[in-house]
Amino acid sequence: MTFSKRVMIEALSFSELPDYRFMGVYYIQNLVTNRFYIGSSADVYSRIKSHLNMLQRGVHSNIHLQRSYNKHGQGKFAWGVCEEVFDIDQLLVVEQTWIDVMGDYNICTEAGSTRGYKATEETRAKLSAVKSGINNPMYGTKRPEVGEIFRKLHTGKVLSEEHKRKCSEALKGNRGPWDNPESVAKIIEAARASNTGRKHSDETRAKVSAAGMGRVVSEETREKIRVKSTGRVHSEDTRAKMSASMSGTPKTLSDDERQRRRIAAASIYSKLTDEQKAARVQKMLETKRLKANSRN
């Protein structure tokens, strides 16, 4: 079966970009040094336009090609097609044969791979700058607008049965990281490590406290907590830790610490709305009632 056709279109200037879309292997040629850059794409026309755009802005990912372009200018470069490919599975195979023969500018000598390539700090800075701020295509776009854009893109889109089958096969047996004890252990360990030695500022503590004030736990939630805790038995290790943390002489707060806490509490309370204050009083009364019932 023939999966490609050798074309070797004569070199065209970058001003000649016919709107003819096809899949294949293309080249960019320096007419002065006769050196070539080889690439492949499912849409050669769009890819060549992308190369030209990056070269003109000085941010091409291939530093050798960019420097050569800067030195000789656009008029000394041309592009062409090595081979038109009809089977996408063979695209990289065909590209590799051309890279091996004439890929002078190619940093990555393996088709479809970035192995061996390491961007310079200068290139990274340029790529970052060209996508930052107003240059970013999503600049100024609000989240609702983004959602609307994606909604329109997918509205009416129907997946083929073959695509659905492949998605189903790929997801079979995959219940996410929480179904794997090893993954769960890693997640917990990472969470602990991120909080180890971390201390919240007084401002953060005040905000957390204010956010929780006036919050009333529903009867349904209380019942769930009660059911979950009923019959729960602490391990000997947990008991020992609890005993050790509570043993000894209780801490006695200094007068300064008491005063600081009073001021902080008063400051937080003053920021509460009337509804929050009323809810807080209701919560205190409910707590007292529950304690009285438990004693009886």
UniProtKB/TrEMBL annotation:
<dbReference type="Pfam" id="PF07460">
    <property type="entry name" value="NUMOD3"/>
</dbReference>
<dbReference type="InterPro" id="IPR000305">
    <property type="entry name" value="GIY-YIG_endonuc"/>
</dbReference>
<feature type="domain" description="GIY-YIG">
    <location>
        <begin position="21"/>
        <end position="108"/>
    </location>
</feature>
<dbReference type="InterPro" id="IPR003611">
    <property type="entry name" value="NUMOD3"/>
</dbReference>
<dbReference type="GO" id="GO:0004519">
    <property type="term" value="F:endonuclease activity"/>
</dbReference>
<dbReference type="InterPro" id="IPR035901">
    <property type="entry name" value="GIY-YIG_endonuc_sf"/>
</dbReference>
<keyword id="KW-0255">Endonuclease</keyword>
<dbReference type="GO" id="GO:0003677">
    <property type="term" value="F:DNA binding"/>
</dbReference>
<keyword id="KW-0378">Hydrolase</keyword>
<keyword id="KW-0540">Nuclease</keyword>
<dbReference type="Pfam" id="PF01541">
    <property type="entry name" value="GIY-YIG"/>
</dbReference>
<feature type="region of interest" description="Disordered">
    <location>
        <begin position="229"/>
        <end position="260"/>
    </location>
</feature>
<dbReference type="InterPro" id="IPR006350">
    <property type="entry name" value="Intron_endoG1"/>
</dbReference>
<protein>
    <submittedName>
        <fullName>Group I intron endonuclease</fullName>
    </submittedName>
</protein>
<comment type="similarity">
    <text>To endonucleases of group I introns of fungi and phage.</text>
</comment>
